[in-house]
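Handout, section B. The chain below has 500 residues.
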Amino acid sequence: SDLMKMRLSKLFKNAPTTNVTGLCFDSRKVKEGNVYFCLPGIMHDGHEFISQAVENGAICVVYSKELTREQMPEGAIYIRVDNVTDAMNQVARIFYSKPSDKMLMYGVTGTNGKSTITNIIRNIRNLKEPCGYIGTIAIEYGNVRLQPDLTTPDALFLQGKLSEMVRHGMKACALEVSSHGLAQHRVDGIDFDVAIFTNLTYDHLDYHGTMESYFEAKSLLFSQRVKPDGIAILNIDDAKYEDLCKISQARVISYGIEKECDYRAININIYSDCTKFDLIYRGKTYPVTTNLVAMYNVYNLLAAIAALNETDMDLELILQACRKLDQIDGRMEQINLGQPFHVIVDFAHTPDGMEQMLQFGRKIAKNHKVISVFGSAGKRDVHKRKVFGELADKYADYIILTEDDPRDEDPAQIADQIKEGIKNTNQVFIQNRYEAIRQAIESADKGDVVLLLGKGDEPFIYREEGRAPYMGDNKIAKECILKYSKYASECTDTQEEKKS
């Protein structure tokens, strides 16, 4: 992006024709020739760091508050706007040559399913044309794979990455859009061709305060960010369906299971290694087989099928591709080294996600044991802890409570709060997460289901002193199966290809 240059007059009306080398809102990172935006932050206000930005080479300062002469050091052009965030979004869009206009943009929002749906879309769209992906798991386009910091990165980073995608020949992009990202206007410079809503369940209330403001944030994608001639793909079985229909400025396409809709799944059969159902679309029935498992993935798949089919992909081709979709690490990841019991790693950390996983575990365990290992994150929504306990109590036969990003809370106290919901099921607290997983795998018999929930493949854990390295539930599970399982001698450390 060092090659990017543009005249200031292109970015602001009546501004001089000075060359701009880049955009920045962190005064410490400003480089020679940058435009510096004084963003109002939660901790700090960008207006306080103007002199540092100018010292570092900012040629232009965009601000919104009254400034005194002293606060405006010489050597820079000062441009006052009503709202710095809005100005930054618009300027970034122009500076990076409106990248979202050059690609087919899919935006996915909702509590659960964002990563899965965006990955399915990318996976299948790639059969037709190159498609990028930005979300919690990574940023990917062509052969590039980068680690992200936030689900929806800041506007400058986002526009910069989208313009790199265009440069690398991407014709489409699937983007996870978090409620935080919408509330903080990080995607304001992007026009979405397709906006997808998964579901709204109890989550992130620590940030949004109430379910209402959480829904408000999510709904912005449909009321403002999707193009009027675009498509809104909505879950008809979700309680918010009607509300979203009303506010959507785009044409609505529905998907679901319970009611009649545009893309409906019926006759659903869930197995431990695949799912089969009939898709009803325009009065015709299409048999679907997919390697994705669990009921919630039927919803995720319907949303992706609808999004792809509505953007001119052949339905038969889409359904063919559903048979073997890439496994997303840490999302419903089945660890199979030949052991005669199931081990499933999942990122579930909301009551809804937990219940889906526990229900699935119960279903495939039949009359064998369900052993669940989980905790609840520290310094986050406290109310859901007892709910986790109640859910595990309902579906599991054995519960091992452990740490899950405790931050500066005591994992034992968090476990006590979870225990308030556990009335009838045997439970034990093992603070060290590795030891907890080891215990679960050591105690697993033939046909049992071991559920490792909450962290997925995350390679770190947040403790009191900050972010500490962590092996990841999936890697620990593999090591424990080979070292400590009763059946270790029957296992190999090359994951067997699933017999489809």
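Note. The two ends are 45 Å apart (CA to CA). Compare this with the example in section A.
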